Amino acid sequence: LQPFDARNLVPGALSGKNAFSFDQAALAGAEAARGSRQPVTSLVTTPLPARPAEDVALADLQAFFAHPVRTFLRSRLDVSSPLEAEETHDAVPISLDGLAKWDIGNRLLSDVLSGTDPATSVRAERLRGLLPPGELGARTLREVEEQVRPLVIAANGLRQGASRTLDVDIDLGGGRRLTGTVSSVFGNRIVNVAFSRLAAKHRLQSWVDLLALSVGHPDESWTAHTLGRGRAGIARALTGPLDHRASDWLRDLVDIYDRGMREPLPLPVKTACAYAEASLQKRRGAFVTPEWQARKEWETDRYSAFGIPGEDADLAHVRAFGQDAPLECLLAPPRADETWNDEPHRLGQYAWRLWQPLLEGVENVGHL
Amino acid sequence: VSDETSPAAVEPEVFEICDPLPTGTTLLEASAGTGKTWTIGALVTRYVAEGVATLDQMLVVTFGRAASQELRERVRAQLVAAEHALAHPDAERAPNDMVDLLLDTTPEERARRRQRVRDALGSFDAATIATTHQFCHMVLRSLGVAGDTDANAMLVEDLDDLLTEVVDDLYLRAFAGIDEQPPFTHKDALKLARAAVNDPQARLEPGDADPGSLPGRRLAFAAAVRTELDRRKRRLGVLSYDDLLSQLADALTSDDAPARQRMRQRWTVVLVDEFQDTDPVQWQVLDRAFTGHSTMVLIGDPKQAIYAFRGGDVATYLQAAATATTRKTLATNWRSDSALVDSLQVVLRGAALGDEQIVVRDVSASHQGSRLTGAGAPFRLRAVNRAVLGKKPTAKLGVPDIRPHVYADVARDIKRLLTSDARFEDRALQPRDVAVIAYRNGDLQEVQRALAEVGVPAVVAGSGSVFATPAATEWLQLLEALEQPHRSSRVRSAALTSFIGRTAAELDAGGDAVTDEVAELMRDWAELLVTRGVAAVLEAASARGLIARVLSRVDGERLLTDLRHVGQSLHQVATEERMGLVALLTWLRGQMADDKVEVASDRTRRLDSDAAAVQLVTIHGSKGLEYPVVYLPTLWDRFPQKPPVPLFHSAGGGGSAGGGAGDGDRGRRCIDVGAGGPQWSGNVARAMLEEDGESLRLLYVAMTRARSQVVAWWAPAPKNTPCSALQRMLFGRRPDWPTVPPEQPLHDEEKVPQILDVWQGLGGPAWEVAELAALPDIALPADDRALSVRTFSRWIDTTWRRTSYTALSSVPTEPESAQSRVASEPEERPKEDEPDLSTVTEAAAPRETSPDAIPSPMGGLPVGATFGSLVHAVLEHADPEAPDFRAELLAHIDEQLVGWPVDLDPEELAGALLQVCESPLGPLADDVTLRRIPLRDRLCEMEFELPLSGGDVRDYPTAPVTLGDVAPLLRRHLPEGDPLLAYADALAAPGLGGQDLRGYLTGSVDVVLRVPAGVTSRYLVVDYKTNWLGGFPGEGGPPLTSDDYRPEVLGEAMGHSDYPLQALLYAVVLHRFLRWRQPAYDPDTHLGGVLYLYLRGMCGPDTPVLDGHPCGVFSWQPPVALVEALSDLLDGVAPAAKEGVA
């Protein structure tokens, strides 16, 4: 019997003439349970008050578009996600999971791109103690090397000339400024390389960099190259050069950022990208349902035991929207000040606003 | 099955409880609801009552701990009922054939039967009613060297960590050094190793694979893992539950194994419940031990054999069935209404469920008609078609189209039923009367959502790990904040949890003020957690409104239950493993990362409410349960998947599996770890065929849970329906056909109604199209009884206590910290009632040594409480009549030194004690010595438990008495000059004298001696003291002599200690004991007084005697009036005239 069960609290139900329980908290609970129940809603139902307009750091903008909800939780509410379990590995590694392999590849890539001799980096990996013993480890390392090598070759083709780091200081109007630093610039190319599949996150990173340079240093013609692994070989997103619209686009991003600092936006990175890409196809006449594409990225398949978790399982999203939140929590009708285009719901409005310039011609994604 | 008549062809006889008692090996084939457990209880009662076997000669085995517990209670209940009926044959009682049979005899025999049942009840704990594993464990331990088991081995439930190590090591050994791609990955290696180890009785296949091929290498790896794991288990001294069985089976191998003899001698009647879930080794154990020697009754229902994945092996059941000397069936269904049984039988009758020997037989129902009214036909079938899904007749259907419709339909149908005027057993039908049973938990959760949408409460039993729920995350956030309350992000995260209940808006508006406030709370709770545990934190949160806050949410019961569950798990592990906050956090994170699915464990989520709610259960979980109305939404939904490691039974006569195996090897449980090779596809097919059979048995179990009504769904999903049990039963066979095809393709949509009409015409399911019912717009009746709680306005009486002389005399100087945790009972501690060194004589003026002083024989022996305990123990056990008393003493010293280790020379101690026992005991004992008082005249370590002021008798007439009230009694009764009179002044101290005498007084008297006194005897209370009364012991001090223990020194020592209190209390104890046990008790005659034996002063027969008192012995004879007055005082009688307690 639960302490808050009515039988504990109804006089005479269990013993004597009085209620059985002495538990005031249980009584309060049982009465609350009888009252009208509050539906479990999102963390923030109405936007928090706007903060006074301050200068924006480019790094903050980057962090925001990498994960809008997490950045909201961290910088506005100062709330952290629970730490993941960190298991202490006390056994000899036998086989490496995807994440461990990614770590190795990522280290190799950044070492080599920053000028370390490839043979030295590989040797360092061997000595690090994270690889399985003997041939098992050697084989794993060879596999990873195979994946890193073409990325390095492709990147070196683009990284011609001296590496530059540029400061930007942009007047956003109304006394606000956007300041920050863009690195990984070679000639007038921004070159970002990731040891991952080329994903929305990487494309947005280059996009923000490119907008900042194009607006901050308008006298040069900037392009951004984002390299990642593709389905067949190396995938590249080539963005730019941009025309005079860059300034408006940048202000749009800052506006989204400002809104995203008041509430968790219905703009999960992968889901929004999938939605916007499908929406583009639909606009061009293809028979696709953008919501369906978005759902594939958002929802974890509950019927599959080995399902790859969707964005709904992201801890920050769980915190903001609830456990196993359906896609519908992103599909609320747009508010009065959120109609920038013809999309029918908030996800569509934000996704299309963010991705439209990229998808409609400024960005070109393909294999090298 | 060529060499024997098909058992299915012969309808076995029906077993009645009044039949002659079974002998030999009897197999009783039950059916759902036919009362397996009742039959076992009745048989046990008959065996006992009729004198065939006593209860301790019977072995009752079942599977699973919960089941054995229930069986134990049921057996006992039947014995009690039988005893009652035999005692009162004419009393009214429920009709019971078994009891009638027992009563139907002569009055003399009836009396004998009653006595036998009474004896059985009296020794009920001697009955072996156990799980197979418990019983094996017990036998193995009793075997000693007759078995081959490490008696110290520890039983371990989960060996997965060890297995992982083995797999890692073997994998490395095999593949780290070779230059080729490993033939299978490490992950696969772990998978196949788990399959091989978790099913240790299955033979590994393909046995004849080429060792160089992939199947051969996988096989070799699996075999190597089994061997290596066994080796490591031996080395670590651990046993798995499976090992218990296999080791016992090994011990029983040979025909003349002593283990066989032992088991047969011990148990003459063996009853086995749930026998269909047996496995090959369990049966081997029973068969080897009992077949042909003891009576064995095996009760099982092969139609409900659904635990193949856990090792249950219906093939073993069938093999065992073939060896039974008698086969009978239980044929009366006590669970279901006849209307329901008849309707279900139309569909089920005659069908062979996975084996031609497992046939649904006819049963008769005990309940005629139907107990459920106003709910439609007893067996309803709702069929989905394209029209109700809003699809065109030609549209393709998929499972995602159908499932949501069925969930919604289930919810609406249940809501309709619950808001209708359906009645069960003449009362309104309630949510808890309805169960939804499905194969998978996922389906149940969807049904729960659908039910919640229409406002019907539902609970899912045992679904997944509690550590995978939001509640675990909330605890994690709370603990993280408790760990580091200085980190604002952690504190603010915790503030959002239900424990604190802040909203994001408050957090944002409040800023640092909120952070500081919550951080302060976190610091308090962290302190609370350290001092009083997690449970206190949970209570603190409850006091701050946690329960009301959570329960005001829609899914509040669920969240609150999980929060409490996680909290209790945390508290348990913190207490048991002595974890601090940091370790606790690590543990919780580990539990949350661990996604192991266990069938039933502490991790399984608990029921969130036992209030009126629809029950949602899996088919496996529903076994053995019953509900008035059962909904079966997913019987049409089954998609068989190829198993990664197929489990199957070998075919007969050297078939493809296990080449070279003989005929005797038929039906051997096998697993194929090869993942390839010529036999792979055949073995996969065989495994899938066996699963097809099991799915039919799952259908049988699901359908037979209902007491009055079954509502099932059927839907035409192109991929999932054809292999489903319902489709195959309804569309794949005609009524009464035994054969059920493994797959039945879908019929055209227009033919479906025709076929269903045929079944309905025969009395089978009443079917209808599953159109969503219009929802009645009424809520379920709500409980609106007024709620209240009592207020705790009573006092907890903290002065009522169980005390002892030691506790009374050692008044605590400061109260114990109120925050201290509940302490456990102290272990046995050394004697506490004697100070190591008495300071009494130190203050005394130096005195002259008298000429006749003799050195103390114990002057060279150490001091200390442990030494005292050692001497007490030796004196307690040594037999003074032993021919060689010195050797006797030495033997006991050696023995007791283990428990009370003291660095001394045993010879020296023995010599000293010899002297002690030869010393005269003074005038009260007529100077007899301890040597002269044999053990039969001693009552050693007499324990007592004396009620003070009535103990715990309520309303016992008492006056408030305190220890201080003893003082006036002493003054009144003791003559001037009595050495104990001074103690009256000591009692004036309020700490000592103010103690209430209420509760119990407990303790133990060192020894009570009986010494002859004329024609009768006198009794003396004796307390041994090893106190050192001389100067400081050790090098250089004056030697200890009898002089240090002169009578006046002893009197002085007594007067300045609390020993008078002890002497008084023990005198009362003796008085009360004698008053009760001594015929013609007269305190003046029998009450001998109190002796304090200061052993160090007892120097043998020549101990100096001063004024009639030998040194070392303090004799005190309390006046009888004082003893009686004190006895009354302890009983709560106030002294008639109170003198002021000075």
Fraction of helical residues of chain B: 40-55%
| Secondary structure tally: strands of chain B | 32
User: Can you tell me the overall shape of chain A?
Assistant: globular
State the separation between the terminal residues of chain B, measured CA to CA. 100 Å
How many helices of chain B? Answer: 39
Q: What is the mean predicted local confidence, pLDDT of chain B?
A: 85
Low-confidence stretches of chain B: 1-9, 653-663, 813-827, 835-846, 1137-1142
* Biggest sheet overview of chain B: 7 strands, parallel
Number of H- or I-type helical stretches of chain A: 13
**Helical content of chain A (DSSP H or I, runs of 4+):** 40-55%
Please tell me how large the radius of gyration of chain A is: 26 Å
Task: Please state the average pLDDT score of chain A.
Answer: 88
Q: What percent of residues of chain A are in strands?
A: 5-15%
Structural class of chain A: alpha/beta
The main sheet of chain B orders its strands as 1-10-2-9-8-3-4
Tags for this entry?
heterodimer, A: 368 residues, alpha/beta, seven-stranded mixed β-sheet, 13 helices, 45% helix, globular, B: 1142 residues, 32 strands
Summarize this entry quickly:
The complex is a heterodimer of chains A (368) and B (1142). By secondary structure, chain A is α/β, with parallel strands linked by helices.
